[in-house]
Transcriptional regulator (Fuscovulum blasticum DSM 2131), 496 residues
Amino acid sequence: MSLHDLPAVHQECGDCPIRHRAVCARCESDELARLEQIKYYRSYQSGQTIIWSGDRMDFVASVVTGIATLTQTMEDGRRQMVGLLLPSDFVGRPGRNSAAYDVTATTDVVMCCFRKRPFEEMMSQTPHIAHRLLEMTLDELDAAREWMLLLGRKTAREKIASLVAIIARRDASLSLRRSKGEMVVDLPLTREEMADYLGLTLETVSRQISALKRDGVISLEGKRHVTIPDFDRLLEEAGDDTDGGLLI
Amino acid sequence: MSLHDLPAVHQECGDCPIRHRAVCARCESDELARLEQIKYYRSYQSGQTIIWSGDRMDFVASVVTGIATLTQTMEDGRRQMVGLLLPSDFVGRPGRNSAAYDVTATTDVVMCCFRKRPFEEMMSQTPHIAHRLLEMTLDELDAAREWMLLLGRKTAREKIASLVAIIARRDASLSLRRSKGEMVVDLPLTREEMADYLGLTLETVSRQISALKRDGVISLEGKRHVTIPDFDRLLEEAGDDTDGGLLI
DNA sequence: CGTGTGCTTGATTTGTATCAACCTGAGTGG
DNA sequence: CCACTCAGGTTGATACAAATCAAGCACACG
């Protein structure tokens, strides 16, 4: 699985998989044409660091396919993941030129990049982009605040249940299958990455996954493939309001 | 100190204390005039709840004076503060009509409110407001992510040191006094509120404040008035990069 | 077949929560 | 004016959840 196996992507915005969710979602066809001119794709292998915290950033980008993480690291090596970047998520901050976090590909990732200058120019001229970016940023802020509750107040067991629930919910919303019955998810993260996301150690993550399995809240096939027989039960274990809170 | 003692505020935007920092910071005088027409002030007493989570929100607002908190509460009563609202901070989310968090005044607070509909209309017409709001939201997102690191990975002692450092830094940036020597801060929060912000119990907060005092990192006069003899020492205790990281 | 990465499980330690008592200062009312 | 109350805070003893230290398993890969 070397770099050369990754497809040399060249795609029309019209049939882009994230066309209706990304920062360009609201663009008219003429605006899209302008974006199309300044965009370029980049591929990253699983495990590769896309951006180092502190680095000069002269582009912004959307995740097209794959999953990346946003992490902060303290001097002594303690790490905290502060965001999970899924297809359509936006990377980079207009108006700032150095990265605040490490961005790492946890699967093979394809990004749709824009050089920062032209993108900022376009943003100031086409309100559709700025407006969509505001909307996406507000969503991320809500997600970050939900995560603050998890990090500050939830038990290890609740943290794991919450993570599984969130991943399952996202999968369901992406694939649009609203299965009443059991849900099936593939965890996109290693135990260590989960630990970094949840503010735990990898041992605790492992133990709590085992415990949830033992108690029948989830069942596992291999280390990544999870079946959720009863989603409401999982939400209870997560300590969330049972009403589901689909604010979207 | 009843409601009637609070001044009936009526102010020109031109000499508003948050004119250059709030959502209206970038507005031209004609835009400001329009805003002036749709704005109104509201006052809240210390301790009063400004907005309940889940409530219908038909206005957005800026904090003019005072301090408010944003908190989330779990069914069993566990609470996590997810934001501290200082003068110029924005409350409410254009494009959503129910509140996601409780907003509470921790001091007497004056808010500059706009009915949501007219504000959203103005936003779609004047890019200056939308642009400034994006900028503020991105800043809040960064702050939330910094807090995620604190909640997930810092020790109780580091959490307290971080909180004091952040409050001190903000005070210094507001009053523009760049004192080389000792800094003086008044904590705007009770021990319990600090605990809710830091993901601790109030007992642990109290103990760690005592410990930092005992070790000479801070000194206390009363329960709220803090003197910081050596700010770099405090940053070390906070576990932060010592370079200060003034990204602003 | 050996090596290594990701993961699990066990034993022990430790930092923080919990339970509980008491202190302090401000406000209240007799 | 003093006794009372009460909210906010401190401090101590103990319990417990998660971290740490440690061993070993399972599977992929050269």
Summary: The interface with chain B takes residues 70, 72, 74-76, 78-80, 82-83, 93, 95-96, 100-101, 124, 127, 130-131, 133-135, 137-138, 140-142, 144-149, 151-153, 198-199, 239, 241, 247 of chain A (CB under 8 Å). The CA atoms of residues 23 and 136 of chain A lie 8 Å apart.
